[in-house]
Design goal:
This is Ubiquinone biosynthesis protein. The chain has about 280 residues and is mostly helical. It has a single domain, classed as Tetracycline Repressor, domain 2, CATH 1.10.357. It contains 14 helices and no strands.
Length: about 280
């Protein structure tokens, strides 16, 4: 990632990386989709590191509430942005371009699924989708908050994250049907694009202004009918609500919660729409 810090999320960074590995600089031509493949590699690497972190901290997680587990997972993932935070707005802008948005949404969905799984959720009903949609919104809004956070050690970011998770669990407000979930998905992507346009800075703004992304409408006026009030409030404050386009990741046999945790997990997940924590994820 040192090369990215110097050359940002560009073809030049791919070429420099190839040179460092002993390949000719033209080897970047193997990446036909260009700089977005560098962004996706970073996101995939972070997901793998997060999975390792959650497995290593199994015993610690077992002593936490569900809310604390969610906060732990989101924070652990966001802390991986610190080395590239100065350039990450450009990476976000590239990932939000229309041709790249589906793969970006898929990776965000996988991230939410991973965190929820380690939080103890094994639901198989509609709540499986709604929990992951809302957690993706919490992650995306906290990520954007972090980009502008100047507080020591990102204290304000972690306080923002704590409030978003606590408010969501306390309110227990979720969409009630598949049409609502579909609406959240489409509005979520648009709101992320809109937020990236305003927050990503001059370089990312230039990228977006030269693409169809600049024509994405502001979705805030349409959000109220399908998104819980707590999420609408976040969007109105300039934060996005996003949701997964698809989800699912490999099972984690190394992670098994003790039976004494299951009643607590079920009770807290019930506030988010209910879940059977005793079933394994398929």
């Amino acid at each position: 990632m040192f090369i990215v810090m110097l050359k940002r999320w560009t073809i030049e960074a791919l070429a420099a990386g190839a040179t460092d590995l002993g390949y000719p600089s033209v080897a970047h031509g193997m990446f036909s989709r260009g700089a977005v493949e560098l962004v996706e590699y970073f996101m995939d690497s972070c997901l793998a590191k997060l999975r390792e972190t959650l497995i290593v901290n199994t015993e610690k997680l077992q002593a936490m509430t569900v809310a604390e587990r969610l906060k732990f997972g989101v924070r652990a993932r966001l802390e991986m942005l610190e080395p590239v935070l100065a350039t990450w707005p450009q990476g976000m802008a590239i990932g939000a371009l229309p041709q790249n948005a589906p793969s970006t949404a898929k990776r965000l969905a996988m991230l939410s699924d991973e965190i929820w799984y380690f939080a103890g959720d094994k639901s198989t009903d509609l709540s499986w989708y709604t929990k992951r949609a809302i957690l993706t919104g919490i992650y995306a809004s906290t990520e954007l908050f972090m980009l502008n956070d100047k507080s020591p050690n990102f204290q304000d970011t972690w306080a923002f994250l704590d409030r978003r998770v606590d408010e969501t669990i306390q309110l227990g407000e979720l969409p009630q049907n598949l049409n609502d979930v579909a609406g959240m998905a489409s509005i979520g992507l648009q709101s992320v694009f809109s937020a990236v346009t305003s927050l990503a800075g001059p370089l990312a703004g230039q990228i977006i202004s030269n693409s169809p992304l600049s024509q994405v409408p502001n979705p805030i006026s349409a959000v109220g009918s399908v998104v819980p009030p707590s999420v609408v409030s976040a969007v109105a404050s300039g934060m996005p609500f996003n949701s997964p386009a698809s989800a699912g990741s490999a099972g984690h046999d190394a992670m098994a919660f003790k039976s004494k945790d299951l009643d607590e997990i079920n009770a807290e997940l019930e506030k988010l729409g209910g879940a059977d924590a005793s079933e394994r994820r398929s």
